[in-house]
Amino acid sequence: MRRTSSIWLVSVSGVGLGVMLSACASTQEGAESAAIPPSEETLALGAGAYRQAMCFKCHGDDGRGTARGPDLTDSEWLHTNGSVAGIETVMRQGVSKEKMKDSSRPFGMNPVTNMINDDATIEALAVYVKSLSTS
Ligand code: HEC
Questions:
Q1: Would you give the DSSP letter of residue 76?
Q2: What is the CATH number of the domain that holds 117?
Q3: Which of 2, 32, 40, 50 is the most interior residue, by most CB within 10 Å?
Q4: pLDDT > 90: what percent of the chain?
Q5: Are 45 and 93 within one domain?
Q6: How far is the CA of 67 from the centre of ligand 1 (A)?
Q7: How much is the pLDDT for 37?
Q8: Does 61 lie in the same domain as 3?
Q9: Are 57 and 21 contained in the same domain?
Q10: Is the per-residue pLDDT at 21 higher than 50?
Q11: How far is 76 from 70, CA to CA, in rounded Å?
């Protein structure tokens, strides 16, 4: 009799644990689909591309802007809504001199595809630029 009840207890706690684990897993999935934090790898790829494509020459080493290009770290966006997709679009299109908001800047911005050919790298660069900004 004693033996039977302890087996019953073990199996009940086993079920309890299973329920707890699956509850945790589903909470995590929900959080991930709301906002996926960029991986270290993506940010490293994007940071490398920022240097390789010479974005820093106009936007500064830390993205805070120079006389040649605007600050990318603030919450103010001139040509995009600041989403990763919006940033990617403006990077791909570039900004011609006619479209520039601040005409005191000496050059427009060339399309990123002049410098980088690989979609995954361009996407990582957009994620990296997004990570610099406050919104
Ligand atoms: C020759 C200088 C120059 C280089 C190099 C350059 N940019 Fe720009 N960038 C600009 C200018 C100028 C603007 C538009 C500023 C304006 O409208 O007054 C701009 C705008 C942007 C914007 C839109 C900002 C906003 O507020 O909407 C993003 C994003 C951006 N650049 C990212 C990049 C990235 C990433 C690279 C590297 C691939 C890069 N830029 C290289 C000069 C440059």
A1: -
A2: 1.10.760.10
A3: 50
A4: 71
A5: yes
A6: 11
A7: 86
A8: no
A9: no
A10: no
A11: 10
Instruction: Quickly state the pLDDT bin for 9 (edges 50, 70, 90).
Output: very low
The DSSP code sequence of 81-135 is -SSHHHHHHHHHH-B-GGG-S-TTSS--B--GGGT---HHHHHHHHHHHHHHS--
Q: Tell which atom from ligand 1 comes closest to the C-alpha of 79.
A: 27
Q: Are residues 46 and 96 both part of a single domain?
A: yes
Give how many domains the chain has, as a whole number: 2
Q: What is the pTM of this model?
A: 0.80
27 and 59 share one domain:
no
Structural domain that includes position 10: 1-33
Residues 6 or more apart in contact with residue 95 via CB below 8 angstroms = 79, 108, 109
Query: Taking CB atoms and a 6 Å cutoff, what residues make up the pocket around ligand 1?
Result: 53-55, 57-59, 68-70, 72, 77-80, 87, 90-91, 95, 100-102, 105, 107-109, 112, 115, 125, 129
* Residues whose CB is less than 8 angstroms from the CB of residue 114 and which lie 6 or more positions away in sequence, other chains included: 94
Cα of 109 vs centre of ligand 1, distance in Å, is 5
Residue 30 has pLDDT above 70, yes or no: no
Question: How many angstroms does the Cα of residue 51 sit away from the middle of ligand 1?
Answer: 13
Ligand 1 centroid – CA 59 distance (Å): 7
- Testing ligand 1's pocket by substitution, the residue of 45, 54, 58 carrying the most ligand atoms inside 8 A of its CB is 58
